[in-house]
Specification:
By secondary structure, the chain is α/β, with parallel strands linked by helices. The chain is 29% helix and 20% strand. The chain has nine helices and 17 strands. It has helices spanning 18-29, 51-61, 88-97, 131-140, 160-167, 206-212, 253-269, 301-316, 333-344; strands spanning 7-10, 34-37, 42-47, 70-72, 83-84, 102-108, 122-126, 144-145, 173-176, 187-190, 197-200, 217-218, 246-250, 274-278, 291-294, 322-326, 349-351. Strands 1, 2, 3, 4, 5, 6, 7, 8, 9, 10, 11 and 12 form a twelve-stranded mixed β-sheet that branches. It has a five-stranded parallel β-sheet with strand order 15-14-16-13-17, sandwiched between helices. Helix 8 (301-316) runs parallel beside helix 9 (333-344). The longest helix has 17 residues, at 253-269. It is globular and about 60 Å long. The protein starts with 6 loop residues before the first strand and ends with a strand. Magnesium ion binds at residues 147-148, 156.
Length: 352
């Protein structure tokens, strides 16, 4: 356990105050932990070249040591200090999707300590676009290792308040730049050898990547949720989980809504309270739900993705016995949303 006094600073998310950035950058250089906003989710950052600082990340998050961490850079030329044998495909992807929600797994440079990558010979790299993240990495002068800033197996943090709820007393500085725009983590693609493979769907859609890299494959853990993929040890099923059990429904919308209503009725005969997370258009479908949280329009997956983790946390606090939600397809951001919901449901999936 890493224990410290946490200082929280509000920061301008478009034009970050240099004084606050300088303070946070000094903490990074000093081996301390700084939580900061990115366009995807908040990261829990430390100097990626300092193995003791990286060890503090694992301790603060209570993260298993076999779960590797993403290294964040601000300029393309930092890439050559982090990875070696970089394939041409990585250059194309960088040109098309950086700065942004894409993480590439490459062969690790000796300059990056092995605990960043849980001892693996590879390293995951991302160049975020959020002005606070960019300013912090530039000012620190070192690449920043950062997992999502949540306790291990909790939903990722998309606001500074989520970071404080999980990590107050275990992170030195929290930069509050407001809610993150995408709200789902980056897409992780393995380019370390063999066929380029998407290990985690995320903020950049598989379709967009396929347009640039037609050979790309997808490891579909959603279809084999218990499969333990050695290439991405962090993507085990128990992840993003709220403490209240979540049931996830999949299938044609009409049938799914009927199944969810009958689940509410049957939970009620057992005297249990039911919370439903639903699209705005479907709010009137659940007159008997004890609690309802609206996710946004079902025609706007960017909106549903952006608020998903926050809404799971909100419903989790409402003291219901079970939460119900449905998937929103597998196309575009729907794939990332489905992936996160499968994990949050810990396998409780109802195919209608
Ligand atoms: O959007 C994001 O990616 C956020 C922000 C903060 O950048 N970060 C994030 O980190 O989601 P984390 O640690 O929660 O998820 C990183 C994922 C894990 O599933 C991990 O297994 C995978 O990336 N990963 C990291 N290094 C890897 C490596 N060398 N090989 C394979 N997978 C790796
Ligand atoms: Mg995470």
């Amino acid at each position: 356990m890493y224990v410290t006094r946490t200082r929280l600073y509000e920061i301008d998310s478009l034009d970050p105050e240099p004084g606050i950035i300088a303070l946070a950058a000094a903490a990074i250089r000093d081996g301390r932990l700084v939580a900061f906003p990115t366009e995807t989710v908040y990261g829990l950052g430390a100097d990626a070249t300092d193995s003791d600082a990286v060890a503090r990340i694992f301790a603060a998050k209570q993260r298993p040591f076999n779960d590797p961490i993403i290294v964040h850079i601000a300029m393309l030329r930092q890439l050559d200090q982090i990875a070696v044998d970089i394939p041409e495909s990585a250059r194309w992807l960088a040109e098309n999707f950086w700065a942004g929600a894409l993480t590439m797994v490459l062969q690790r440079h000796g300059y990056i300590p092995s605990n960043v990558s849980a001892g693996m010979p590879t390293v995951a790299v991302r160049m975020p676009s959020h002005p606070v993240a960019v300013a912090l990495i530039m000012a620190a002068g070192v690449p920043i290792a950062a997992p999502s800033a949540n306790l291990f197996s909790r939903p990722s943090a998309t606001t500074a308040q989520h970071v404080m709820a999980d990590l107050n007393g275990h992170v030195d500085i929290v930069l509050d730049g407001g809610a993150t725009r995408i709200g789902l983590e980056s897409t992780v693609i393995d380019l370390s050898g063999g066929v380029p493979t998407i290990l985690r769907p995320g903020g950049i859609s598989v379709e967009a990547i396929r347009a640039v890299l037609p050979t790309v494959q997808v490891v579909s853990r959603a279809l084999q949720p218990d499969a333990h993929d050695a290439r991405s040890p962090g993507e085990m099923i128990k992840h993003y989980a709220p403490s209240t059990p979540l049931k996830l429904y999949s299938g044609k919308v009409d049938g799914v809504l009927i199944a969810m209503r009958s689940e509410i009725a049957s939970q009620h005969t057992d005297g249990r309270k039911v919370g439903v997370l639903t699209a705005d258009e479907e709010r009137d479908e659940f007159p008997d739900a004890d609690e309802i949280v609206l996710l946004g329009s079902r025609n706007n997956l960017a909106e549903i993705g952006a608020g998903l983790f926050a809404h799971l946390r909100t419903m989790d606090q409402r003291r219901v016995d079970v939460m119900l939600i449905r998937g929103f397809g597998r196309v575009g951001l729907g794939a990332a949303i489905w992936d996160r919901l499968v994990r949050a449901a810990e396998g409780r999936i109802i195919e209608v």
